[in-house]
Amino acid sequence: MIAAPLFIISVPELVIAQCKAGIVGSFPALNAREGEGDPPLLDAWLTQISEELDRHNQANPDRPAAPFAVNQIVHRSNTRLERDLEICARHKVPIWITSLGARVEVNEAAHSCGGVVLHDIINNTFAKKAIAKGADGLVAVAAGAGGHAGQQSPFALMAEIREWFEGPVALSGAIATGQALLAARAMGADFGYVGSPFIATQEANAQSDYKQMIVESGAEDIIYSSLFTGVWGNYLRGSVENAGMDPDNLPEADSSSMNFSSGSSKPKAWKTIWGSGQGIGAIKSVGPAGAIVDRMSDEYAAAGARLAGEFGGDDD
Ligand SMILES: Cc1cc2nc3c(=O)[nH]c(=O)nc-3n(C[C@H](O)[C@H](O)[C@H](O)COP(=O)(O)O)c2cc1C
Fold this sequence. Notes:
8-stranded parallel β-sheet, binds flavin mononucleotide, EC 1.13.12.-, NAD(P)H-dependent flavin oxidoreductase
């Protein structure tokens, strides 16, 4: 399981909790925003995460932390990309997740420090481009995912990718139970990539109303719109209503309105209009991130044992 990077929400406390619980934790580099003239916060975050995980590994050699990942938004409006690549290479970030554009120089920066790159795609054409440009693996974002989701069935997307690609693939889109994680593996994915469930955790940097809305909502409460960032994505219906808009009659936006420059007003959209995937029916309360990992791990083992029984295998 890989915990997906979440704009604003994924902060070192959450990443550290995810890694200590045994899954890959991640955050978008853009979440580390320092004040004007201050030293890069990304540098401080990476030091904090590495030191805390080293301490954990020394104290728990039998249960070491999983590696962490940093997400780079490779979009022309991300004006600090070059600086962030240098900082991540210097800190030898083990896993680099790239989204919204495949660029050779990002892959080269990752490889220069021994990192691996997983590139986020929503269809087979983008998947082929990403691998051609030097990514090591893929994050296949299928229908139902939180944030900038795709529209394809995970069954179709995984099958098309596995026709030509044998490298690492993480499958994403409404995976919130161990049963769904096992299904992703059965489809040929190496990892399940899980985002929205981690919004409703103590360690997440989200308002308590947002966490509570995740707990109280289900798949029917998710709407698909391009209005808020210029890219199609999934959002909580209740947050759109609270902002005074009609979720069933939203206009479309064009992709030129996307902007990830530092200091942009766009984070505001994410602060009032709340992103979420369709899998949140499985989230019944706000708790520690480690509890989600434990629950999904138990469900995964039980579902695997049940299927092994059906196929005549043993159940351990
Ligand atoms: C609130 C929110 C913010 C997100 N921010 C980012 C981001 O900054 N970068 C990115 O690559 N993906 C982002 N995503 C997408 C997730 O990384 C991931 O693809 C998605 O959450 C997986 O689907 P799930 O939420 O159904 O598990 C975001 C998703 C949500 C719900």
